[in-house]
Amino acid sequence: SVALRAQTSTGIGASNLRLTGFYLREKDNGPAEKVLPDPFPQPAELLYGVRPSTDERSLKSNFGGNYRKVYGGLATFTAPIGSTEFTLLGSYRHSQHELSYDQDGTEADQSTTRLVTTSRDISVDARLASTGKRRFDWLVGATYVNFRQDRVTYVFDAIPLGFVSPGAPLNIPFPVNFSAGGEVRSTSLAGYADGHFAITDRLKLSGGIRYTSDKKAADEFVNFLGVQSATPSDRWSRASGKVGLDYQAADGLLL
Asked: Least buried of 27, 100, 104, 182, by fewest C-beta within 10 Å?
């Protein structure tokens, strides 16, 4: 595994720009799957005369793989505007993961699985806030998030021919390979405001409101004896808020 991180901070007059980047790569043998004992003959035993060990700490695996790569970055820009401060944050993240393993628990090459996942997300947040000590502190902002993930599971299997054709030999393999998965896309947009009003030095009235609009859609499929697919999607919006009182009863006690 290799991991790299870097960060810079640059002053631009009274403003500041901070950049952060990261990279991670991992590559190893991945997992091995333990198959629980079963009194009935398993496909690997019928086809190849082998069965998983009954020893709970013993298993056999022909191969395995675990590959992961993640990289991205974050940018933060802050600038004073009169008696307020403007903050802009932007981030990007990309990940890729491939996982494969032997799932029959024997020395035979009877059943294997491979999972491939990729994702990408982008987010932007902009806000303007009051600065300095004042009786009324406030903050307003907006957020945008865009997320996309693709995931496909591949299963490579062999079962006895007699399972699908009664009367046929049980030691002749019949391939049963299939895949399933799809892509999910999610988008969220929100605006928000938050404020604190000092009634006294120890008592503050606080309140906030947020309006969020979300959309999610997917392209899904199952490829098993033919392809079946679906494209579900939905959209929803909601406003939420809060009101509260903060009372500093003592230096170490906040109610």
From this structure: 27
